[in-house]
Amino acid sequence: MISKPWIGSIATRLVLVAGMVGAFVTAQPVMAEETFTHELGEISLDTHPTRFAVSNWALTESLIALGIDPVAIPESDGYRAWVVEPKLPENFTDLGTRREPNFEALRDAKPDAILISTDVAMAHEKLSGYAPTFVYSIYNTGSNEPAIDRAETLLRNIAKLAGKPDAAEDVIASVNARIEAAAKRIRDHVGDDAKFAVVRILDESHFRIHGKTSLFGSVLGRMGFANAWDGDVNGWAFHNGDVSDLAKMGDVQFAYVEPIAPTTRETLFNSAIWKAMPFARNDHVHAIPASWTFGGVLSAARFAELLADAVTGTDTAANGS
User: Which of 225, 223, 200 has the alpha carbon at shortest distance from 210?
Assistant: First the structure.
């Protein structure tokens, strides 16, 4: 078990200062002491945290999905552009960048728990000086488990920590219903045997092609559709490819995720090599509005619905923009 100065009987410490903070004590969600396991060990608490600081957007959206507004969030403008939904709360502390949290801002936010993922785990000890710090990751973990399954596990872990396990199950059931409804819309339009490629266009020559265990790839799998890319992927479950990789996939349903620079779009889509691609010739190219590649379960549902909108040529309220 990790030994930290704040671990132990929180209730005992509160009793010692009860004369000063009695009102605060009665407001806390007291529980029997419980040990929570995370990726770097175990932490024992006797109150459920209510004020969470987070290091990335998947953790941000997962808390909001549970009805919990984080008190400190990184790169909020980027979240609004790339994640879009669920919407951020009106009030929170700007925590700086996802890679380098602002420790002064973190202190001012007064969290009673901090949630991070493996990409900033090197800061775990320092962060733990501010509040109990839990490491929960979906991506780049070395696991071949589908990202959507890991996103569900992360949501359940956070819900347990917050004392809201039933809320996680409600969210997961809702997300799966949304994904299945989107899958039905696509099947009704292109049949059961459609094969999809899900790509981020980096420039006119380079592409991020999502594999089967990526969030979008695992959503495709849950929808019952094949992923056109079965080659190698990195720890984030995508392949850094070029036009030759696109050409190998043949006549697939080609879904590219926005945003993309207008100049890149114009140069690529007007090029001879692009026009020669079977999916381009057969008008099987679909633009997906901003969806977060490395998100949680709500990003998964958003992607499924936006994919169905694009394939069927409809525009539902799920677009959120």
Answer: 200
> Structure tokens of 234?
């990195």
Q: Are residues 126 and 224 in the same domain?
A: no
Taking alpha carbons only, the member of 65, 69, 76 closest to residue 299 is 65
Please provide the DSSP assignment of 16-47 as one string: HTHHHHHHHHHHS-EEEEEEEEETTEEEEEEE
Indicate whether 69 belongs to any domain: yes
Residues 174 and 290 in one domain: yes
Residue among 178, 175, 177, 191 nearest 311 (CA): 191
CB atoms within 10 A of CB 100: 12
Residue 270 Cα to chain centre, angstroms: 33
> pTM, whole model, 2 decimals?
0.87
Residue 240 lies in a domain: yes
Q: Is 311 helix (H, G, I), strand (E, B) or coil?
A: helix
Helix count and strand count (H, E) for the chain: 14, 13
- pLDDT tens digit sequence for 97-135: 998 899 999 999 999 999 999 999 999 999 999 999 999
